[in-house]
Amino acid sequence: METAKINIEKIIRDIQKTIDGYISKPNPKTLYDPARYLFTGGGKRLRAVMTLLAYALHKPDYRKALPAAAAVEILHNFSLVHDDIMDNDDLRRGRPTLHKRWDVNVAILSGDLLAAIAYKSLSACDTPKLQEIVEIFSEGFIELCEGQALDKEFESQKKISLKAYLDMIRKKTAALFRVSMHLGVALSGARAAFVRMASDYGRHFGTAFQIQDDLLDVTGDEKTFGKDIGSDLIEKKKTYVTILADQHPDGRRLLEKFHPDNPKNVHLEALKTFNEFLTASRIRHQIESVVDRHLRDAMQCLAAFPDSPARRQLVELTIRMWKRQY
User: Fold this and answer.
1) pTM for the whole structure
2) Yes or no: is domain 8-322 CATH 1.10.600.10?
3) What pLDDT, on a 0 to 100 scale, did the predictor assign at position 90?
């Protein structure tokens, strides 16, 4: 491994190789083929990369943290499979979702497999702190499920406060970023103060990521975003965007125009008008400012760590988030 700069492409290859070892069985085909399909669909392996970079903040050879990084990535993909079923999404990373490519039963079972092998990978960590590591991971898994449950509950509630929404994404999205960083630094044997700062970095980064995701669902390009643009609006999901828009009379009126039975051209026209409203009302600017604040707070957390190739990579990763388009 280079001392001047960490090779992120190599890290991703190492993560993928570790994951491939768990899904290489040829049979049952309806169990392992969908799992392999899922992990050949691209993706930045962002959470797993963060686990390895977090480890490398204290110890340069990240390979001892590979089982934990793979576990994080597998768990993340498990959550995507089940989220797609619950939200009835057609696309993930520009390809048909598992339940569309196969069927719902196959997708559920494949998701169950991923949850099991996530723990199998985690148990391969060579550390005297394995019980602590499993506890960190399990708490993050529970929070993720709680966040998804709250997200679904919100759909049937007419009004949701921004505070309630932020509490939900702290569990559904930010928790796994926090766990990614926490696992890496804890495995490295760093002091408790560094573990806390790494966890806080993950929490701020994850919060910014989800709020930005909410905005990209409305403003993004379907080809680069890899998901159905405007699906949150059609499904009447509560997001940072829709909560703010609902506080404005024009926003409420425009939100009512989105319906799953509308043809594509009607949907696209409504989306264009809604985007114009977000700009004119400065809601888009408000959302971008919140994302900026969380990313700046994340950068402050990184400032607590000594300079290293890993810290520089995390800084670069955070800067790229400001420019994220997908």
Assistant:
1) 0.92
2) yes
3) 86
